Fold these 4 entries.
Entry 1:
Amino acid sequence: SSDLIRRGILAFRSCMSSHGETIPSVRPTAPPASGSPGADRFVNGLNPNDPKVAAALKACQSKLPSFASGG
């Protein structure tokens, strides 16, 4: 449901913030645009190739709804 998706995205953003990577407040689209791998499409401008961002993504991607985590 859309409520589950919203809660998942909020949990992901909170997790990323707790890992020192605050996601810009641009609202991600749901469902996300195709072509972006896994959680990368939810970082709203953060560089997923940055080691700090990548570590936070790895730690937090399980918070996203299953459609967003690539599996």
Entry 2:
Amino acid sequence: TLVEFPYSSNSENPRELILLALKYEHAEGVPRDNEKAAILYCKAAKMGNADAQFFLGWMYANGRGDLEMTI
């Protein structure tokens, strides 16, 4: 079942971007989409969010998402 979330990928709030990215990375209420998760983590990381930087690095280290295109 797909679920609507109160935040979007257009948000300027890095915490909201991370929460949405986690949903895509772990297929929680949305189809799994590692590329979309990486893009959202990258956007939050560019805002200086350390959690997003960690999650993006973890995805890179584990070969998830198309990080060459994202970074």
Entry 3:
Amino acid sequence: AYKSAVDLLLEIRLKAKQNKDWATSDEIRNKLTAIGFSIKDTKDGFEWNIWKKIIENKYWFYEKNTHCNRI
């Protein structure tokens, strides 16, 4: 469920960038980065990823998500 929320926030960020609303774009990126997300802008949209820890098994795994939406 969180993936959909992150994608929605990044869609809002992408639209803000298209409208040259750099303050909103930066705020969304900075807040997601502060809670552990890495966001990379690409020529086709964006990619995001996060490191997660599964406490029960003490394993770390890396999750990468790519969303393409031409600017």
Entry 4:
Amino acid sequence: FTLHEFGELLRMMTNYDESEKIFSRSIAIKEKVKGKSETLSVTLIAFAGLLEERKKWKEANDVYERAIQMM
């Protein structure tokens, strides 16, 4: 599993706190290693979806905006 996939698995299991931590870690690593990239954008979109599920609307919107700027 990649961290992204693990974050998605935790999300599906409704373990939202851990999923958020894993996505944040995945994003931090991808930013350091690859900078702005397609894989980072995909992870940001998945993370924003998680934030939406948690009703963190402002944070989700900000993350979506970051992902869109990379495309």
